[in-house]
Each structure stands twice: as structure tokens, then as C-alpha cells.
Amino acid sequence: MTASSGKPWLSLYPAGATSIEIEFESALDMFAAAVRRAPDNDAVRYFDGAISVAELDRMSDALAAALADRGFGAGDRLALFMQNMPAFVIGLLAAWKAGGVGVSVNPMFKSRELAYLLADSGATALLCLDALYAGVARDVIATGNTRVQTVIVCSGTDHQTRNDPRVLNGSPAAVNDGVEHLLELIARYAGKRPPQARPRSSDTALLTYTSGTTGEPKGAMNTHGNVVADAQILRDWVGLKSNESILGVAPLFHITGTVAHVVLSLLVPAPLILAYRFNAAVMLDAIREHRPVFTVGAITALTAIADGEGAKPQDFVSLSKLYSGGAPVAPGTADRLEKIYGHYVHNAYGLTESSSATHLVPLGVRAPVDRDSGALSIGVPAYNTNARILDDGGNELPPGEIGELAISGPQIVPGYWNKPEQTAAAFPDGELRTGDVAFMNTEGWFFIVDRKKDMINAAGYKVWPREVEDVLYSHPAVREAAVVGVPDEYRGETVKAYVVLQPDAKVGAEELIAFCKQKMAAYKYPRQLEIRPDLPKTASGKILRRKLRDT
Questions:
Q1: I need a surface site. Which of 64, 322, 326, 373 has the fewest CB within 10 A?
Q2: How would you write the pLDDT of the chain (551 residues) with one tens digit per residue?
Q3: Inside any domain, residue 182
Q4: Cα 220 from chain centroid?
Q5: 141 in a structural domain
Q6: Which residues form the domain of 472?
Q7: How many domains does the chain have?
Q8: Whole-model pTM?
């Protein structure tokens, strides 16, 4: 049964309809309509600064013209390596206006990770936070192993004057090696525009990187049609209006932040409230100051805000359209947060390959809890979306039966960047095989009960064991390594490593953890590490992660 066949849950949908008409061919057309409709509305609010829709249009025009002058054109990739700041929005729009593609880069990446992503994406331009340029990107670019020719830096202190010391630590010394500053370029190119780009629905708008089963990152090709469709699905699902601002809880490099924050705000247009990087106290102050109406974020982030010092229910009166995604939500947690927020936290489900949401709990409706597993429902399929439960042979299963969740709809990407074999395996006939084990009940509610593969979900961030193991194996003292996810009260899951040392090696667990910390993003390195004399294996010598998880 799919979301479009029996429809016993039709009454759950906003307006009682399971489909909507998508209004725009591309994200660029979508934003142009917003400029015509509401040029004076705030597009971005950043501490005490604000950028109007018209100003955002002019700034992105100027940057696009500067990029075009530097050889950036149709199909080229602009990597965006920064925190949650206005430059991300300006850069993404500029890439589209110059006919190119935005490439989202995790600001926690270290040199090894950044080098892989830049090389794989073939990015020719980089818009980078100045601190990240000085600490990470400069050395990567200097190797000559990327195609990056143009580097533009921006500062967390741009577009505001508050300089909140809790998150803004100033900038490093000015760089003088041919790197230009975003604000200077915008001023120099003010009033200029690049040749007009007219992307089609099928053209790639974003490359957002996920991880494969082997740990090799893959660039999901989120098309203009994908991101416009999912932004409109979210807008219509919650009935978001232009006077209802969006709180930027999710990191903008993540598909949730890019689509459910940035693209959604450009569509409505509604003000997007940004605060550099996540800090619960800073977020609480932003809520009090700007009174946002909608957000979607990891349950750990929403919990941290709710548990912030001095947080009171009256602080959250405006935040009536509240969603959580990226990590499972325990029913008890949802109940506790409802008492603090004064609003029910609705579940949402999606993947990088689905350009954000595919399943949502209808606004104002409480998600059911499965009696057997105790799992809270992820919702029902969003507008224009079909979802099925399949057995190992790809056959559709009836309600109540457990199998792999498969999804099709306008938000599903056409595949992975330059990876035809992985694309064929993950998207047979254009339908996404999620790798998540799930079931649908007779009323049409979907429940995730397990993960099919070994991926670790640490506070909404995906971690693949193989990548962590590869880093451990690069230490001369390590003979064998296995990495699993273990329960964590705050993060949901955390990374634990089991290690067998080389004969006569003298190294402790803390030293190995510190070694990984230097080479990996903060959410990836193991928080726990156990040194053992051996690891469980199959008869053929394959390490059994499952047995380690079970212990």
C-alpha cells in the first residue's frame, strides 16, 4: 500500500489532499518571484543586522557578476565552507545566478575531508569563512590537488555589529595571498549582473554530500526541481506566511538547513534568523528577540534550547510550528518538550537524497506510538510523495509488515555525482531505497524501527564506521579496529571504537581518541575507545560489528 492508493489517512492531510501543484521551474525563478512580490521584507536576520529581499537580490547579483568575471559559468561548482551566516545565502544565490551549483561543506571538516570533497565535486570556486581559510582551506588549496581557482573569504562579523562573544570570536589576521573579501567584492560589483541564467527543473542546484556504505562520501545531486518541490511542500504543509519567521536551528550545510531553512525562506519569502553556530543560550536569545514561528531541527538541539538556563514557556509562545528531524525522537522526550515549549514537537523524516522531508506529522496532529516497539511515528508521506515497504526481493509488503522504506516523489534526487553504479543501486527506476527498516500501519502512519546498515546517527549527524576505522588504522600502534554506535542519553547514539594493538605497542585509549580528533570532524571521532586482545570474527576473518554492538 502506498500513500496514493488506499488513503485511509486522507483526513490527516492539510486541506484533505495528498498532492499540490509545484509553482516554479527553478529556485532562481522562485526567488525572482519573491523579489517582485515582497522586496522590502527581511530575507535574513543576523544578530542585530538584517538584509531585505531586495538587498539580498542586489548582493547576490554583484557576487555572481564577480564570479563570472573570474571564469565561473554554467555547471561550475561553488563550495560554501562556513557557519550559519548570511554569506551562505548570498553565495548560494550567486552560484545559481551565474549558472552554477552550490556545494555545501561541513564547517567542522578538517583538511583530509575538505580535500576529498573539493576534489570530488570539482569545485572551481570557494566561498569560505576567514577562520576556516586560515586554519584548513589555505593548505588544502596550496597542494594543487583541487580545481579551485577563486577563493573568497567572509567573516562571521559581517552584516551585524553585536559581535556576541559566545559564538563570534573575531577574525584571524587579514590574508594577503590573492584572496578577496566578500563585502569588498559586493561593493566593487554593486549594480552589476552576470549574463542571465535560466536553469531547468532537471539542472543540479546543490551537491550535498552523504556517506555510502563503505564510508566514501557521495554527492547527492539535488536539482532545482527537487529543492523547489520540497520547499513548497513544507510551506504548504505548515501554512507558513511571509510574516512568520524561520529559526535557523539546523546547520545550513545540511540538507535540512539548506532546504527547510534557506530555500523555504526564499520561497515564502520569510525572514530567516541565523546566529552563526548553534549555541543554546544564543538561540534562546534569538527566539526572545525575533519571535520565530517555524523551525525544524535535531531533537538534541531542541532539547538543549529547552533546557537552557532561564528558559520559560512564555519564551516559546511564537514557535507554534515546531518540527524535529534528523534523529529519532523518543515519546517521553516529545512529551517533556511539549511541557516546556507549550507546543507539540512534530516529527519529520527525510534524507539528503530526498532533498529534506518525505514524511511529516500534520501540524496540530499528535503522532501515534507503536505499541510493540515504542517508536514514535515519523508521520505520513508528504504531498506528491509515494512510500512503500519492500521485502528483500523488492516486493511491496502490506501494512504491519517490516521491510525497507522506499520512496518516490518530486524531491528525490536523480542520483549521485559521478557515481553511476551507486546511483543504480540506490535509485532503481528512480525510487529511493533508503536503507531504513520501517513499517506502515493500517492508518497510513510510518514507523522507523531500525537501520539496515551500520550507519551511526550521532545527534542527527551521520557517521560511517569505515571512515573512523580508516583513521584508526593510520596510527602505527593499531592492528585491528572496529567502530559501532552505542546508546547515548544526549546524542541518541555516539561513536565507540574497539582496537587491537600491534605487539609491544604502548598507547592508551585517550591518545588514540585524541589522534582521531585531530583528523576528523567533531561529531565523527570516537567518544569511547576500548582496547581488547582480539575482536570477534567470522570464519573468513571478517570482524563482526554486530557482536560488538550487542555487548
A1: 373
A2: 344 345 556 677 876 778 999 999 999 999 999 999 999 999 999 999 999 999 999 999 999 999 999 999 999 999 999 999 999 999 999 999 999 999 999 999 999 999 999 999 999 999 999 999 999 999 999 999 999 999 999 999 999 999 999 999 876 656 667 799 999 999 999 999 998 899 999 999 999 998 643 457 899 999 999 999 999 999 999 999 999 999 999 999 999 999 999 999 999 999 999 999 999 999 999 999 999 999 999 888 898 899 888 999 999 999 999 999 876 677 778 888 999 999 999 999 999 999 999 999 999 999 998 887 677 899 999 999 999 999 989 999 999 998 999 999 999 999 999 999 999 999 999 999 998 889 999 889 999 876 666 778 888 887 878 788 888 988 989 988 899 999 988 888 999 999 999 888 999 999 999 999 999 999 999 999 999 999 887 544 567 887 898 87
A3: yes
A4: 12
A5: yes
A6: 456-550
A7: 2
A8: 0.86
**Where is the domain boundary, 164, 199, 234?**
199
Alpha-carbon gap, residue 187 to 178, rounded angstroms? 18
CATH of the domain at 168: 3.40.50.980
Which of these three, 175, 199, 223, is where a domain ends? 199
Phi, psi dihedral angles at 248 (to 5 degrees): -80, 75
Angle at 102 between CA 98 and CA 106, to 5 degrees: 150
Q: Is residue 534 part of a domain?
A: yes
What's the grid cell of residue 380?
505520513
Beta strands in 173-274, from DSSP E residues, in sequence order: 180-181, 204-211, 217-223, 246-247, 272-274
